[in-house]
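Weekend entry, working from home. Most of the wet-lab plans are on hold until the incubator is repaired, so I used the time to fold the two sequences that have been sitting in the queue since the last round of cloning. Logging both here for the record. First:
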Amino acid sequence: MKEDSVRSVERAFSILNAFTKDDYKLTLNELAERIQLPVTTTLRLASTLENLNMLHRHSDRCYSLGNQLYLLGSVAKANFRPQQIIYPYMKRMRDETKEAVSLYGVVGEDRACFEHVESLLSMQCVMRVGDRLPLWAGAGGRALLAFLGEETIEREIKKARKITATTLFEPDKLRLELSNVRTLGYSLSYGDREEGIISVAVPIFNRRGELAFSFSIAGPAQRFTEEQAVNLVPQIQKMCREVSTQI
């Protein structure tokens, strides 16, 4: 009975995790497909979540996240200590560079944007809190993936594919790049996911030495050059070490 209860909770959370900012409304069949459960089972779970105001069912029979989750999310954000600590560093770096600064963490098999400070300039890379991206693509992802162990690295390398003309996706090149990230303590990306965007990212570890986040700065290559990005690395690493002592 206890195992059944745990499994039900896990399945309920899998339904909630099926939603993203781009897919904020899903049909019952879409939910069932995403969580890989029969429609009847998914309906039973969705109905329970609806009664708890965790899900909202619209007139077109699509589901979206309910108001209770919005309230809980507000509470969680207000009390999310890492964000409170790291945000001032992000804003300071954005003000100094005028480029966009993002904080990423591992969620499931993805990297998720936990915080974002927009560029002060007109041309900017677009990122939103809650966005999920590949671990293998981009500086912010590889700064995390490099420290997740060989099994996870090989799993992600199998997913790698060409997104842009400059995407780093070949297995041997990816392995070498991740090895360099572990040695140098930072990752650099040349338009891996978005043409013309250069980004640099540094991993953040907690006081126990465990990987927590990656701290990334990104901007258009015509003004944010590779040289500028690399020159920022010592400063970013110093900031990340300061953060590490507080989380």
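Second, folded right after the first finished:
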Amino acid sequence: MKAPELILVPTDMSVYSLAALQYAQVVASMFKASLMLVHVFEPGEPAAVNDASKQAESREDLEKRLRHILSKLLIDNKLVEHSIRIEIRYGSPAHQIVKTAKAVDADLIVMSTHGRTGLRHVMLGSVAEKVVRFSSCPVLTVKPEEFRELVDITKEDIEQSLHLTS
């Protein structure tokens, strides 16, 4: 296994994806790797980047505005210790992330999960899950802090769950 030289970090501009970027920066520092941030714009995206007053703007203007928003997000959250290339793609997030990783020959994808479970997960699907399934390079998923549960499991818990004790 070779050390990663280019790490792709998908972002939907949520706090979850910022956590993945922080994690990616640590990995990049360890291996002296480059980082590339990719945002996939879905038509009809309800985010701040798609407000009603701006819907008629050209793709070029939209890309410019998205790059500005992402740059500001990086600066505001003090996430600019590395030089970060920003890529904007259009379409289905999972498909475009996998396609971008292949096109730029990424060695690793670091992305966050949103912690959805149950019916919401089934209905919305999971971009991270699809990327893991279809990516040709390794994918490191980062679970958001608020969804991490520290559970101490004892031998007795296991035995009780397996009905080995009475």
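Plan for Monday: verify the second prediction. The first strand starts at residue 6 and ends at 10.
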